[in-house]
Amino acid sequence: MTNEPEEIIDEAPEPVLPRLGLREPLTPVVDTDDALARACAEISLGEGPIALDAERASGYRYSQRAYLVQVRREGSGSWLIDPIAFPDLGELGLAFGDAEWILHAATQDLPCLAEVGLRPASLFDTELAGRLLNLPRVGLAALVEHYLGMSLAKEFSAADWSTRPLPEPWLEYAALDVEVLLELRELVLADLKAAGKDGWAREEFDALLSFTGPPERKDPWRRTSSIHKIRSRRALAIVRALWHTRDEIAADRDITPGRILPDASIVSLATHAPDSFTALKNDPTMRRRGPRRFLDDWFDAIEEALGLPEDELPTSGQRSDGPPPPRAWADKDPVAAARLVRVRAEVTRIAEQYNVPAENLIGPAIVRALAWQPPSDLDPASIAEELRERGSRNWQIELVAAPIAAALIDP
């Protein structure tokens, strides 16, 4: 018996896409009144929509302010504007007029742009458009690859944009982000029209015009990483006290909270609960110079939490007016659990039929709310009104109101 050698099949390597580079020379950062006036004049003379982007320093600063604003318009070129150099950018907003803004992931940039006096009259979000088209990846680099056949460098996306002066490679990266948006808009819009989804997109974009930021979280300290390891209400009180103390220090110094005291250190301190200043000072979490600078603050927070009466300690679970987690429904309300299964199945079916992600068809939180406590009237008109009150757009309501109404009825 002989052993035949296995056939070796050569797999073709993935094609290496050409790297996208600047099509025009990089212009100096706009950081003087004269330079801003010139930029505004040039932009106001341009034509068509305005590509816009903003860079923040989320991993370094407490605030979500913009540290660089990039603008591009046909006929005016690209402009990199330092918003820190000006009281606001209202003058730039006047130059924009009623022109449509093109943004990628608009909800990330709209709040910080509003802070400097920039608010759109209309907009086009290339990321949201990609979601409506059900593209497998919708990041800017992925869309550039999909539509332009080019690779887009993203190595500076997490850079500290509060740095001054900004290095030239960072500025090139920032300029590229808006250079591609004008062309992407046209290509994405053509696909939306071909799929019959351009009307959907317009409703979604119009809804974004009133976006001011994510809703404020109740008890944000409960999002401390690894808080699930905490086993007592007293230890939870220490987490809460340390979290709020850290947040005040971070806001005052405009430093991201994790650089003041990591979440892991908060959980460790809450677990061990050092009961003296010396014990805290010698705790392993205080070895680094950063946390040691605020020893007095940490000790005051821990001491306050240790002194709280029992009835003021936080509960182990966050109270909520909404439905419980779906995993608990079968025990708490089997009928509601069955409704949730039926409604989710209908949403999945419709999403597949229209080739759109289920979460863009209807928010998962709305599905849970309707299944947990349906309206008294389960006719499609009543469900449509309920969806409208919860922020659903007309195109979504037209697709899901009647199927959800039918799914909510116990068969």
Automatic annotation (TrEMBL):
<dbReference type="Pfam" id="PF01612">
    <property type="entry name" value="DNA_pol_A_exo1"/>
</dbReference>
<feature type="domain" description="HRDC">
    <location>
        <begin position="232"/>
        <end position="312"/>
    </location>
</feature>
<dbReference type="InterPro" id="IPR002121">
    <property type="entry name" value="HRDC_dom"/>
</dbReference>
<dbReference type="GO" id="GO:0000166">
    <property type="term" value="F:nucleotide binding"/>
</dbReference>
<dbReference type="InterPro" id="IPR041605">
    <property type="entry name" value="Exo_C"/>
</dbReference>
<dbReference type="InterPro" id="IPR002562">
    <property type="entry name" value="3'-5'_exonuclease_dom"/>
</dbReference>
<feature type="region of interest" description="Disordered">
    <location>
        <begin position="309"/>
        <end position="332"/>
    </location>
</feature>
<dbReference type="InterPro" id="IPR010997">
    <property type="entry name" value="HRDC-like_sf"/>
</dbReference>
<dbReference type="Pfam" id="PF00570">
    <property type="entry name" value="HRDC"/>
</dbReference>
<dbReference type="InterPro" id="IPR044876">
    <property type="entry name" value="HRDC_dom_sf"/>
</dbReference>
<dbReference type="GO" id="GO:0003676">
    <property type="term" value="F:nucleic acid binding"/>
</dbReference>
<dbReference type="InterPro" id="IPR051086">
    <property type="entry name" value="RNase_D-like"/>
</dbReference>
<dbReference type="InterPro" id="IPR012337">
    <property type="entry name" value="RNaseH-like_sf"/>
</dbReference>
<dbReference type="GO" id="GO:0006139">
    <property type="term" value="P:nucleobase-containing compound metabolic process"/>
</dbReference>
<dbReference type="GO" id="GO:0008408">
    <property type="term" value="F:3'-5' exonuclease activity"/>
</dbReference>
<dbReference type="Pfam" id="PF18305">
    <property type="entry name" value="DNA_pol_A_exoN"/>
</dbReference>
<dbReference type="InterPro" id="IPR036397">
    <property type="entry name" value="RNaseH_sf"/>
</dbReference>
<protein>
    <submittedName>
        <fullName>Ribonuclease D</fullName>
    </submittedName>
</protein>
